[in-house]
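Sanity check

After download, print the first record. It should look like this:
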Amino acid sequence: MKGFLRSVLIMIVLAAAIVGGFYAYLQQIGSGNDDPPMVHETTLDEKNKIEEAREKALALQSDTDGDGLTLAEEQRLGTSDETADSDNDGVPDNEDIVPLGVGEKISKMLNWEHKGKQHSVEAYLPIDVSNYYEKKTRPQHTFDSQHYLPFIHAEDIGIVRLAAELKAIIEANGSWDYYDEVMLVVTMVQQMQYAKSVIAGFDLTTKYPMQTLVTGRGDCEDTSVLAAALLKKMEYDVKLVQLEVEGKKSHLGIGVWANGVKGTSWNKGGRTFYYVETTTPGHKFGELPIEWKEGTSAVLIDI
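Expected structure tokens:
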């Protein structure tokens, strides 16, 4: 019996060896085949998916609105890639610490007298706009429109809001004439502290209008830029006026279009602009400060 089992086992081993050898033989024959290996062909649908993924990747790196942020960064911040200023506060998204317009604000109550009445408005500046103004590099003085235009622009959110409040005061006093309206703005600006270079912590670089409002002080340049920005937003025809007297430093005021007013004026573009002082309370429409009345030359600056 043991011999029979041993014989069966030997036969099984021999059969396995034969089958294994035959398989190896077939493999050797197959290895000599010159046909190329099977290659997976990319279908049209797969090609379309690859192209779509490539286009999406490129789109995420695009900057449609030119604000310095890619679409991927805009999506992360929640801002728009169709406008450079998503919250419309005058600060580009890439320089805005609160690009969606939700944040703290710096405010100041302004109180002044005009036409025998006391007036009050709140001027406030969103913290992101204040931060933008503080960090923005000031251009070198050139005393022309190229220098001042960056400080006077229609999208300054603080000026937009304050101009609307001043218009509301004017509308509530329907009996005022053109000059009363202009001087409402000017008298508000005139009551601010005149800042000279000797004042601690005050520098002579041009300030943005709302910086002057919030701090409550400025030199002739700052108050003139502020008054001009407000009047321009309120749709009055206004220019900056640079006064010069030989041997003296220059002085900045504003010129406002008017008709039939007594006072100092200049013609430009077929229109007459009367001088208005912005630094000292009590100065009237067309009145030059006494120290600038003799030998003064003037340059009217478009804004």
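If your output differs, re-run the checksum step. Summary of this record's structure: Residues 97 and 131 are 8 Å apart (CA to CA).
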